[in-house]
Amino acid sequence: MKPGLRKYVCDLTLDLNTVNRLLSLSEENRKVTCRKGLKQLYPDHPERFVSCRQVLCREGLTGRCYWEVEWSGRGAGIGVTYKGISRRGWGDDCGIGYNDKSWSVYCSGNSYYAWHNNKSTTIDVPPSSSHRVGLYLDWPAGTLSFYRVSSDTLTHLNTFYTTFTEPLYPGFRVDDVDSFGDLWGLGSSVSLCQTSHTHTHTHTTHTGHTLTEHKHTH
């Protein structure tokens, strides 16, 4: 990890109350996996995604924060959302990146797409075997940047520029298994990566620091 990012690392946990019933959590609620046709017996909860295969993290972020995730399988959407995103149905108001409450990058193979308010942009990036993605949120400045992480090298994927008005909750959309999936029906998965340093002030706006050490590589 770049030294300039280390001081912004935040520790995240997947929220069991939000996870769709076709998704299972493991590794102390740090990994989510799609299991085709195998519904989990989660209790009803008003914050649970009923139809969309999505899950949010428990932590709402309002400062400067950095985290990394690793995805596997067919594909996954990685992003953030306001808490008010709809939890019912299949409409655009539910999908992370498909409405004005959320921002995401969809990853599949070596293809990446930036999504916000149901508009997508194809990201032109060289092929890589890495499936690790880093996100840097500067909430006060209104920027959310995505990077592909490979051997401690950050390749810039996309940056959203906006004015954030509420805490942002990291979240994931996990693809189903395709026709070539394994016999156990395991689809895609997303894991929150362990990092060397964490802080707990994810709800606090951090000031007095600027990120200067990392460079964008196109």
UniProtKB/TrEMBL annotation:
<dbReference type="InterPro" id="IPR003877">
    <property type="entry name" value="SPRY_dom"/>
</dbReference>
<feature type="domain" description="B30.2/SPRY">
    <location>
        <begin position="1"/>
        <end position="191"/>
    </location>
</feature>
<dbReference type="InterPro" id="IPR001870">
    <property type="entry name" value="B30.2/SPRY"/>
</dbReference>
<dbReference type="GO" id="GO:0005737">
    <property type="term" value="C:cytoplasm"/>
</dbReference>
<keyword id="KW-0863">Zinc-finger</keyword>
<dbReference type="InterPro" id="IPR006574">
    <property type="entry name" value="PRY"/>
</dbReference>
<dbReference type="InterPro" id="IPR043136">
    <property type="entry name" value="B30.2/SPRY_sf"/>
</dbReference>
<dbReference type="InterPro" id="IPR003879">
    <property type="entry name" value="Butyrophylin_SPRY"/>
</dbReference>
<dbReference type="InterPro" id="IPR051051">
    <property type="entry name" value="E3_ubiq-ligase_TRIM/RNF"/>
</dbReference>
<dbReference type="Pfam" id="PF13765">
    <property type="entry name" value="PRY"/>
</dbReference>
<dbReference type="GO" id="GO:0008270">
    <property type="term" value="F:zinc ion binding"/>
</dbReference>
<dbReference type="InterPro" id="IPR013320">
    <property type="entry name" value="ConA-like_dom_sf"/>
</dbReference>
<protein>
    <recommendedName>
        <fullName>B30.2/SPRY domain-containing protein</fullName>
    </recommendedName>
</protein>
<keyword id="KW-0479">Metal-binding</keyword>
<dbReference type="Pfam" id="PF00622">
    <property type="entry name" value="SPRY"/>
</dbReference>
<keyword id="KW-0862">Zinc</keyword>
